[in-house]
Amino acid sequence: MRDLLPILKTLNKNKASPLLLILQIALTFTILVNAIYMMVLKEQELVQPTGLAESQLFSFRTNFEGSDEEKNAALDTDLADIRALASVESVSTITSMPLTNWGRSLDVGLTPEEDERITHAGYYGSDDTIVDTLGLRVVAGRNLQHNDVVHTYFDGHTESASVLVSQDLAHKIRPNDWRSVIGETIYVESVPQKVVGIVETMKSPWRFWYAYDMTVISSVREHYEESIIVVKAKSGQREVAMDEVRALMLKKSGRQLDAFKSFEQIKTENLQADYAVSQTLKAVIAALACVTMLGIFGQARYTVYKRRKQIGTRRALGATQTDILRYFMIENAVVSLFGITLGIVIAITANIYLVNYFGLTSVPGDYLIAGAIVMLLAGQLAVTYPAVVAARVPPAIATRTA
Amino acid sequence: MLSMRHLSKAYYTDTIKTQALQPFDLSIEQGEFVAVIGPSGSGKTTFLNITGLLEDFCGGSYELDGVNVEKLNDKAKSKLRNEKVGFIFQSFNLIPELNLYDNVDMPLRYRKLSSKDRHERIMDALNKVGLASRKAHYPSQLSGGQQQRVAIARAIAGKPSFLLADEPTGNLDSKMADGIMELLKDINAQGTSIVMVTHDAQQAVKAQRIIEIRDGMLSERKNYDKAIA
Hints:
The complex is a heterodimer of chains A (402) and B (229).
Chain A: H1 4-13, H2 16-47, E1 57-63, H3 68-83, E2 88-94, E3 104-109, E4 119-125, H4 130-134, E5 138-141, E6 150-152, E7 162-166, H5 167-173, E8 185-188, E9 191-199, E10 215-218, E11 220-222, E12 226-233, H6 238-251, E13 257-262, H7 263-306, H8 308-316, H9 321-358, H10 365-391
Parallel strand pairs in A: 4-10, 6-11, 7-9
Antiparallel strand pairs in A: 1-12, 1-13, 2-12, 3-4, 3-8, 5-9, 7-10, 8-9
Chain B: E1 2-12, E2 17-28, E3 33-37, H1 44-51, E4 59-64, E5 67-68, H2 74-84, E6 85-88, H3 100-108, H4 115-128, H5 144-157, E7 162-166, H6 174-189, E8 193-197, H7 201-204, E9 209-214, E10 217-221
């Protein structure tokens, strides 16, 4: 560390260019740490489980005609026909599917008063088969039963019935004892509903929504002109099941099938934009890191070039090649540390502002520490080649004039 | 102290060999003040660089204080330069960002010396050149003559076997040049050998011995006459 003091004195005497580099490193550090954190959050969101048996599911919309009873009977026939296929494990009708950006969002509270609402939640109407079909897990209370099921043409949420809630919703209603929600009457859009069970995970149709994790699954089955049917194929047989179900449905006269998609397709379409954002972020992060490393590299190259004579003099006066190499490495580390320190200050200040005014989550300390280490190493990497060039400056240059 | 036998130096490019120094023998004893003269391009700087271990030679042998320098690696050569040779350059080669004290300290930092020892050597050297009171000043605040004095302080602080001066007065007016020569003679009088490369005959005659290099040929000049200047 015998070089440290002279390096600090030299930097202090000649502030302008190291100061610019310090600023660049500081800003890069702040942006990098925040961008990486955003990217990680985004990636976590992308791989977040939906709680469904994703690899076995597919769904579609189909049309029904005739009177109320005729439509209900036709739906029953469809479900029975599909269930009879060898490749199908289970089938249900449901009012919408998670991640499709289409469905009902309703107020949830413990009283019918609208202004005492606790939260919003996604609403699904189905029957006693839905837990099996979607592959949900009941973690408290009981599943829906056949005699819970109520049939209605449309707007099933206006009917009182037995419901399941997602664990996140139960937790929102009773933060201290989420299991105690079982047996309670909750008011969904001011209509009383009896909670009979809690499912571990069930998501709303809208991923960007604050109440994405909070859902109500009601035992009110609807038989609207256009109903959604969701099928769970036997494990590994989804392709076959999709072909068989399509063929079966198209044999029925006047039938149209719409949005016939595997759940992965639904998910991919939903995530596409975010996936693109995440990839863009990655590219921006990489480009920014490169620009800063190039900046350090360029600055070091220039400094070495400018100080050739001085380096030669040092060599003539007894510095070994290692001494010269070390000098430039330490100089870079000092500049990087100043930059990183300033960057941490900026990051924390910016974070307080972002958290207070925009409700964003603050970047955890781990990221700052990891970012500091990465920036320091990147700086050392960028300065290595110029430092090697400096070490190779021949001492004889000291005696050549100018 | 310094003994060169059949030493020669040639530079090679792809097709041409340039003989910079013809083989020569030279010995310099402890306490001598030797001037090396010759026109530009004669090989003076090459001689200086080889003597100061800044450049390798091609043939012959070179012993410095009993050490054969031919086979030394970079680290050993750097150490030898640091401990045995005190360099004085034509354009001073001070580090502009460091004050006088730190400039004199620079070569000492490449040795294992205690900070107290270093401090004593620095102050002693600055006292000898008469600039101790300005130790916190920067090179840009000094005249050329004063800067060269700092460079001399830097050279003698390491207590080298000899000073190797490359045109030490070349960038100075005659009054300042005389002052520097007086200082060098004082240092020499106290026992430090000096090898000074110069093309200034007036300064060269102040040395005990004069070696002339002409077209790469070294020759000793006894009774150097001023007519050459």
